[in-house]
Fold this sequence. Notes:
Elements: H1 2-7, E1 10-16, E2 21-26, H2 33-47, E3 55-61, E4 64-71, E5 88-90, H3 97-100, E6 113-124, E7 133-144, E8 150-163, E9 173-185, E10 189-197, E11 202-212, E12 218-233, E13 237-256, E14 261-269, E15 275-284, E16 288-297, E17 300-311, E18 325-328, E19 331-337, H4 356-359, H5 364-372
Parallel strand pairs: 2-3, 6-18
Antiparallel strand pairs: 1-2, 3-4, 4-5, 6-7, 7-8, 8-9, 9-10, 10-11, 11-12, 12-13, 13-14, 14-15, 15-16, 16-17, 17-19
Amino acid sequence: MNTLVEMGFENVGWTExxxxxxYVLQNSVYRLNGVGIGKAVDIxxxxxxxxxxxxxxxxxxxxxxxxxxxxxxIIGDSVPEASRADWNVSYDLGGAWKKAKTVxxxxxxxxxxDILVYPQLYFKNLIITQIYQACLxxxxxxxxxxxxxSRLTAQVIFPVYNDGYNGAMKNIRWGYLTLDQxxxxxxxxxxxxxxxxxxxxxxxxxxxxxxxxxDERFSLEGKFGLVGIGYFNNxxxxxxxxxxxxYWSVGSNFYWSKYNTEFKLRAEQxxxxxxxxxxxxxxxxxxxxxxxxxxxxDKARLNGGFRISVALPPYRYKRRxxxxxxxxxxxxxxSYNAGNESKYYLMPHTRADDNVLKRNQYNxxxxxxxxxxx
Length: 374
């Protein structure tokens, strides 16, 4: 435990009974969870495995359990023979979490401040007299965990270069201002709620749910939101018109573990009450994700394009006590809208770090592939 804490892992604890030894930890030092979890497994294999007894590692995110890694020694094996390939990765925590969640943890993540800088690039090709209109912004955000599963985010957007984007994008302004809460419910159900000011000039609330099936390659997910149109006017006031709109998305996913590729099929209602169907295919790599999408609604023509998300360096960022940690955001990306549809298919992003690479960081099959490819 002391070694893991010295490396920068947070919420580190352990417990043991007659059946297995359990470690609890949160990767807060390595940008990529597959890399960070692999480093923790190496340390546990070297100095923390029990003698002739199974061992489980429960990985947390903001104190909420996400996945577990389970090692069961074969009769006759000695501890030094354990390798990364011997660990089974799953959403299932077994019965270990009921006891492990009560243990005292070292190096708590609560009340620690992160200052994360997000670069944002926009470009469009809609007029004949100019090849591209472009806008580059830098958006630092302060993030802090107030209690288990919670996070407060406050972001300010600074324009760096603007050629062709008018209105508020020319000014320094507020970005996201949100409070979110995540909980893990029984039967492997994750519920997340968020309230505040989002993108696309929206404010309101959203609830999302995720549930992997018994065959963990398959999963169900959905989100439901109620937002109004509103925005900050140069920090001095908040303008809104009182109108509210519902949006929702429900669907299923399949993860092709051999190629770390995910397929999604969803039915959705967007902000302009257009109802449609969307499909996605995303291929995940260690430092990036590349995907294609297509969508069709009852009020707009068929639209589609591709998305690229890249994890930003530095890939290791250790805290120094309770001093605010300054780094880049988890990742940045580009979404290319091949159909140039700008009116329909709109749905707000509710978090500054919401991207396809971030959403896959606790996928058991992806973590397992990262353990094997080190």
